[in-house]
């Protein structure tokens, strides 16, 4: 549901999988889930989001990737209305076709709130990649606390171009997979990778969009106004070879071009070819996108799912360069490796023979049966199976995280005597002061101790620390009973008290799978003599 580019395949493959299960008598609910990297991204108005992000970076002097961010800002600004239309069409599709949770979850909330299901399935696309600055998304690995002890299946999962950067990555990756009962993946390379490192059988399965017969999409596809056209759809990479070859083919066959992408490119890239009749469509929805495949004379793409739908609609299609092996894999599965090209390929002389869709159809039916058997057998086998117990607590004790010490009070007269070799004290924009230890790493064993307080404020007594932890993107207070309470203006603390930890106290074990950072906030009270003096000053001032 939450694809920043509003990628057409994302809602389609989720819908297709749910539809397949429902057709086979399996009651299913989609978890409304935002990925770990999502943050506060504005899906309907990304121009406003990038405007704020660029302004902040320019103001703070952080110019890392600023040109790329400005390009996105400018692109989405030029397509402001079209983006609203596209978003609304996506949302309408979701509202009409999904059976989903009312609540929206993320990796933070799945550590503290249980959606209440018996079995969880993580389904398709590049969900097992390592996100920059964020790491693996535990929700997509079914590794959040809410899913502990539950039955788990992976269907058509992909890791994209991820390769473990270090031993810790591999241990975490395979640690998550060890708790999944049945694993089906989309790429042969991922199947081999897992089987080489784990004593686990892995199945190679079709993407969910191919589990259903073409008739499901025939009924949904909207016929476009254009006729006699070449449909070019590109994602992610620059796709220059795809565009150049599409232009050459359209000229040679006297075809119009309809161009679509998930990238914010005003007028599209093919507008540079003045000799071609090009229609650029950014404001289309799911049903219109399907229609452009169904009624196209030919398709040019670098997209995995566009290749899948070209096969389903039995189209002549050609596939350009793309990182990773997912496109290569799907072409190989159907004996269509010759549909791949690069910028130096001559597609016109000699022309390729038409695709033999009788042979491709036979392969599709066989692989569809294999994939159907995998997922349905996995579900039914787990119905009465006993889940092998795992010591989740022991895994969580391996979690480490940095901790900072904040005065909370915003008083200019704070003093401190932290040794320089132990860390630095910074004044924050809020007006409070924060000690950043040189060695701030804590372990989640319940045996790491808070540093001693070296902040002082005349007339105030230090009582101890309240501790808040950031799991991924959200902050939570550590409560007296050991639970976590979401730290936001809307959350009530239900009569519970925050934990007050004394100087040098042991940090309690926190029952979550990840902690990004913790902050100990000072709790202070005025000394009696100070309170009396302030009261007298107030009385005298009134007189």
Q: How much is the radius of gyration in Å?
A: 28 Å
- E-strand count: 23
Note poorly predicted spans.
Answer: none
Percent of residues in beta strands = 15-25%
The helix tally amounts to 14
Amount of helix: 25-40%
Shape field: globular
Structural class: alpha/beta
For the sheet with most strands, the description reads: 8 strands, mixed
What is the averaged pLDDT score?
Answer: 92
> How far apart are the termini?
64 Å
Account of the 3D structure:
The chain is α/β, with parallel strands linked by helices and about 550 residues long. It is about 30% helix and about 20% strand. It is built from 14 helices and 23 strands. It has helices spanning about 10-25, 45-60, 65-80, 80-95, 165-175, 190-195, 215-220, 240-255, 285-295, 305-310, 325-335, 355-385, 390-395, 530-540, and strands spanning about 30-35, 100-105, 120-125, 130, 135, 150-160, 180-185, 200-205, 230-235, 255-260, 280, 300, 315-320, 400-405, 415, 425, 435, 440-445, 455, 460-470, 475-480, 485, 515-525. Strands 14, 16, 17, 18, 20, 21, 22 and 23 form an eight-stranded mixed sheet that branches. Strands 11-10-9-12-13 form a five-stranded parallel sheet, sandwiched between helices. A four-stranded parallel sheet has the order 3-6-7-8, sandwiched between helices. Helix 2 runs antiparallel to helix 3 and helix 10 runs parallel beside helix 11 (about 325-335). The longest helix has 27 residues, at about 355-385.
